[in-house]
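Example record used in the benchmark description.
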Amino acid sequence: MRFETKNVPVSSIDLSDITFRITTDRSIAELAESLKSLGLIHSPLLIERGDMFTVLSGFRRIQVGQLLGWQTLSARVAHPATEKIECARFAIADNTLQRQVNLIEISRALNLLAEFIHEPEKLAEMATQLALPGNLSVIQKIQTLCRLPQCVQELIAANIISLSMALDLEKIPQEACISFAEMFNELRLSLGKQREIFTLVNEIALREEKDRMAILAETGIHRILSDENLSRSQKASEIRSCLKQRRFPVLVEAKRKFEEFKKKLPLDNNFRLYPPDDFEGAEYIIGLHFNSLDELESHHTTLKRVIENNHFKEYWSHV
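Model output (structure tokens):
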């Protein structure tokens, strides 16, 4: 593919045609400062279409040129007869070979190639040549990201939502998808906590035969998120607690009773009493921390007091 460097009238460049747009970055302030002080170092790629020019790469540079009042700019222009697959290849390469691209940009690039390459193996081969993922399974997963609502795509591009979580969100109705994404953006949770909340809501909805939006409303999540007196971590903790209470009411109640029971026992800071996992079974564990024989002797005394404690005997009689 050959390019001819030309001075192109800015008014003849069609920025509304985003067929070959890969980048998700819409910010132009920093770029504008750079172009004002240094000028245009890396020329945009264009192709002539009648009396207008379609952009292959360089949308933001051209937009800044318009704002700066440029009448013309230097561009590399492809021959009008150039096939679209070649245009796509150069549009993608001008991004992937120049900088690190995000997941949404990768998705856009793969979907652009897929418009012209219909054989999966050839698509994977071309993707590899353009520094894109070459594994067919990964390609198919990433391609779905462009089907998500725009607000969710922006959070994926910003690394607030991971590929793994995005693939789960893609499978649910759009309204619920957006609600989860907005929650994750507000709380800035780790993937593990995002998945915990997502799984709890889904399991509650399935068990109670309700949709996810109803569960989000009934558990008071929106109220918690809008509470300005709570920090992000406090909001996350309350939301997880509410969902666990709804999902595992018996287990949560058992934990509450156990904590109340422990407060009535004569325990010191280095003496720990642990219940069975999920309160299944009857095996309890005592943990002792000591630095001397005197401390160990003190624990021995504490243990005797615990065994003789009426609250302990009453609790144990119901285990």
